[in-house]
């Protein structure tokens, strides 16, 4: 993980997220903490990652999610060269490739 984002404030945010117990609590917290567009952008990136792992084409992904090719490329770069956060979550969700 990049040391640039490792701050006490980010630790507090992540501790808050880890305290959430169910989907309704997540909806309530994230609706308070994020704008609707921020939350939709994050969820779009996650869907792009799922589709990339399923070997979908950029065109298919763009049509289904509305994501730009630049966003798809950034997510793909994270999948290939990132900190393996997506892989960890997909494994825990039972979505391993």
From TrEMBL:
Q: GO terms for molecular function, please? A: DNA-binding transcription factor activity; sequence-specific DNA binding
**One Pfam match:** Trp_repressor
Q: Which SUPFAM superfamilies match?
A: TrpR-like
Which ranges of the sequence are coiled-coil? none
What the entry lists under InterPro entries is as follows: Trp_repress (IPR000831), Trp_repressor/repl_initiator (IPR010921), TrpR-like_sf (IPR038116), YecD_YerC (IPR013368)
- Highest taxon listed in the record's lineage: Bacteria
Matching NCBIfam families, A to Z? yecD_yerC (TIGR02531)
Q: What is this protein called?
A: TrpR YerC/YecD
Per the UniProt record, the source organism is Agathobacter ruminis
Upper lineage is: Bacteria, Bacillati, Bacillota, Clostridia, Lachnospirales
């Amino acid at each position: 993980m990049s040391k640039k984002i490792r701050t006490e404030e980010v630790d507090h945010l992540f501790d808050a997220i880890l305290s959430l117990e169910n989907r309704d609590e997540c909806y309530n917290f994230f609706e308070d903490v994020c704008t609707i567009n921020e939350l939709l952008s994050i969820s779009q990136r996650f869907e792009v990652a799922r589709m990339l792992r399923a070997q979908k084409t950029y065109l298919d992904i763009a049509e289904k999610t509305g994501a730009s090719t630049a966003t798809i490329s950034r997510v793909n770069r994270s999948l290939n060269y990132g900190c393996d956060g997506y892989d960890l979550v997909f494994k825990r969700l039972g979505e391993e490739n």
